[in-house]
Amino acid sequence: MDEIKKNLQSSSKATHQDYFGKTITYICIAFVGLLVISILYFITTRGLATFTENHVSLWKFLSGKNWNPGMLDKHGQPQIGALPMIVTSFSVTVLAAVVATPFAIGVALFMTEIAPEKGTKILQPVIELLVGIPSVVYGFIGLSVIVPLIRHSFGGTGFGILAGTLVLFVMVLPTITSLSVDSIKAVPMFYRSASLALGATRWQTIYKVVLRAATPGILTAIIFGMSRAFGEALAVQMVIGNAVLMPHGLLTPSSTLTSQLTTGIGNTTMGTLPNNALWSLALILLLMSLVFNILVRFIGKKGSLKK
Amino acid sequence: MNPKTSDQLATGVIYALVAAVIGILIFLLGYILMTGIPHISGHFLTSAAQSFRAGGGVRDQLFNSLYLLVLTLIISFPIALGSGIYLSEYAPENWVTSLIRTSVEVLSSLPSVVVGLFGYLLFVIRFGMGFSILAGAIALTFFNLPLLTRSIEESLQDVSELQREAGLSLGLSRWKTITGIVLPAAVPGILTGIILSAGRVFGEAAALIYTAGQSAPTVNYGDWNPMDSASFLNPMRPAETLAVHIWKLNTEGVTPDAAQISSGASAVLIVVILLFNLMARLLGNWMYKKMTATR
Amino acid sequence: MNMQTYAFDKTHIIQIPLEKAMTTENLQVFYGDNHAMHDASLEFPRYRITALIGASGSGKSTYLRCLNRMNDRIATVKGKIMYRGTDINSDHINVYEVRKHISMVFQRPNPFAKSIRENITFALKRNGIKDKAELNKRVEESLKAAALWDEVKDDLDKSALALSGGQAQRLCIARCVAMKPDILLLDEPASALDPISTAKIEETLQQLRKNYSIIIVTHNMQQASRIADYTAFFHMGHVLEYDETEKIFTNPEIKATEDYISGNFG
């Protein structure tokens, strides 16, 4: 009797196991947290060096149109204007999302409203395969099919924003589609029944009820897609042309933040201005990734539909 | 336009969009496989790459890709498992947890080139590892961790709460309940998650060009001592992977048959990833059937 | 719904003239701000079956889950739970030890995704019983105690997930019994089962009563009257009446109890 009483009040193997297990998982998750903090810290400090050590003005960096970090301009200032790359990055991102969204919504509606069973059976693997294709393969196909095609149809070199957009469109399609499917699926069934019972056609129901209700979710999906497009490096780098020029249209070679980073980092020396300038580009990428994250959260909170 | 016509029109448009997407996939796979498979031969898979002459193979790149994949999984799986268990089983509902969840989300949405550059900065430069398989594996771990963590967390969450209660009500510790009851029940989901992440890791290049490097030095496949610099197992040697090879050939390559080699290498890449996907599906189904086997 | 309001201050709760298995004193449960259980003070007799009855949402399951600290991560529990002279609701108590003595069977059968044998031996092995003969003995004993042995003795190594609902629930009972606890808590163990399985479970409980103190939550009044020695009636987070089962079902003191057992409310 007394022994049981004692056991009840003292720790046992089980409690020790629990401490042990808890400790292990805490260490793992602390590692992940630490990792995120160090990524933010290192990229930020390196990215800011351009402004703190080399005293380049932030405004010049963001608005300058000439990128030639090794050279000085006529005022003796280094030529590091990132605007062409910022503009190109945003252009391909927005255009890719604009092209991809109708396809994504069409596929999502097919999988949820028109032929839920057959549609999912066929299209789920299609989406998974599109996700599975590595970005270099997209880049390679872009380079060997899309670029020549643009060259033959519109002239020029074929490299440029149009080629980048077309490659990215396919790459973000699965992201936008699968997240749209989730948000459309989350629309309660009785919304549809109510609308159909009032005599609305299927399309009226989809357009006026289902899509309306799923709008926040679809917006989130588009932002996720844009986030992926903005950060994509190699596939874009292979078809964009890599000329740091202000884009004059969809067909002239230009350069995105990511493509300039991938080409440049290997050719510069750590600690020099040209290298620091590249890290500043990386910092823009990081910040934009955070902005996309915040946007998603913001829309998620505002969204009327709860999961 | 009356509602009926617009209904029909809209349905038609949706069908067309779906057909276009399926067409795109068929074209992509068809193009890669049709142009690539003719180049895949025993010679292609077993000989070294050539820089200036035609007829090079992808032996070293293929091996490097697989070796990196294995190393990455060895490093990332335990951490992801611990983190997944934390998030699914231990995490209290408070601001720390939501901060951690946010961090995982941020990490998963970071561009892989940024993750690669971080690996370059910290491991290649600061820790003096140089371009090496190990640095590459670490960068890929960072890239892989959030997704793997989340898929493990989801698999654990899919196990019914009843199972946990059953274990606890028998006087088992939480830890034993998790490792002995919940985890085994979540194995099919976890395995599927690992295989799918393996596909992503296998095809990743942006995180690798400045960590594992862009060169594939000749290695000795008979030397099993990982400490030897010439050994194929040496984790400190630079290692160009298949995906990086494709990128390199197409951007700065001077190899005359770059297009053919790229096609072949792309086809190999796609076939391996398709196999991963197929494996994930079959294994998941099989394990599910086995676990719920009827007598 | 014809929900009459009843006074909560008028209660009839007896003290048990027998040896006690466990008691609670002023037990209160909060889910956040929601006060789910008010001042429940009950005494449970040893080697008897006590039934907790009441409408759904009356707090009976919440109460039961406190008795072996299964509410730890879900709710705040105040008050005393006395077991063998110890308040097991205090902070420094080893909850895993508590649950070895006070085991629980849940509403929905929850066998592990393992073989029938492993379902029983898993917790035993973790508690240091390694001897094969002893393990086999426990498997047989506990399955016999749960009246399942004859049905599964040839299939011990097959998956427990293939069992029928009734069999799975009896396996869960066997799994608890194998740990040789002192008290068995059952949370509506038969509510998801068909009448034949229910009858078998009740038979099993009658057998187990010889060696175990049993506290069972049920919404089935016939079940309570058939198997329980004592019955407590819960209503909206209050225990309104606690007495011998026969007394409760034939001559209740409280209006609410009377209305409930005669089907006049809810």
From TrEMBL, chain A:
It holds the Pfam family BPD_transp_1. Keywords: Cell membrane, Membrane, Phosphate transport, Transmembrane, Transmembrane helix, Transport. This is Phosphate transport system permease protein. The chain crosses the membrane at residues 20-43, 82-110, 122-147, 159-181, 209-230, 277-299. NCBIfam families: phosphate_pstC. SUPFAM superfamilies: MetI-like. It comes from Lentilactobacillus fungorum. It is found in: Cell membrane. Part of the binding-protein-dependent transport system for phosphate; probably responsible for the translocation of the substrate across the membrane. Residues 86-296 form the ABC transmembrane type-1 domain. It is a multi-pass membrane protein. Belongs to the binding-protein-dependent transport system permease family. CysTW subfamily. It comes from the Bacteria.
Automatic annotation (TrEMBL), chain B:
SUPFAM superfamilies: MetI-like. It is a multi-pass membrane protein. It is found in: Cell membrane. Keywords: Cell membrane, Membrane, Transmembrane, Transmembrane helix, Transport. Gene3D superfamilies: MetI-like. Residues 62-280 form the ABC transmembrane type-1 domain. InterPro entries: MetI-like, MetI-like_sf, Phosphate_PstA. The chain crosses the membrane at residues 12-34, 66-87, 99-123, 129-148, 178-198, 258-280. Belongs to the binding-protein-dependent transport system permease family. CysTW subfamily. This is Phosphate transport system permease protein PstA. It comes from Lentilactobacillus fungorum. The lineage of its organism: Bacteria, Bacillati, Bacillota, Bacilli, Lactobacillales.
